[in-house]
Amino acid sequence: MSVGILLVTHRSLGGDLLRIAGEILGRTPVGVACCEVVNDTPPDEILTRCRHLAATIDQGEGVLVLTDLYGATPANVARAFADSHAQVRVVSGLNLPMLLRTLNYTALDLEGLAEKALSGGRDGVRGSD
After folding, report:
1. pLDDT of the residue at 1
2. What CA–CA distance (Å, rounded) separates 90 from 6?
3. Which of 3, 15, 50, 112 is spaced 20 to 30 Å from 86 by Cα?
4. Where are the beta strands (DSSP E) in the chain?
């Protein structure tokens, strides 16, 4: 078993990042789903979709939710979802390095995978020398 990964992002950002990550890795990741949020979608509707998607990818080890922008609707809904589910962790600030790091360490437990996501996001941001 492994941790499910749910991307909750504005519009197609999550799906686009997942497609690019699949091209880089040479495989389509399994146990990953995307919930694409349109700005005028009611939060309750988004939460219902997140619950449904999480149920399809959770194999008993929990779900890591990656969101694009802390404080925005996708992140706020993800937080509400996590607050009502013990086996859900949320990491915001989704970028390609974060997603790649997460997909390369899927054998970790939920807490370990959340830490890898955080380190991938942080370490993947650099300025020019």
Report:
1. 60
2. 9
3. 15
4. 4-10, 32-37, 63-67, 88-92
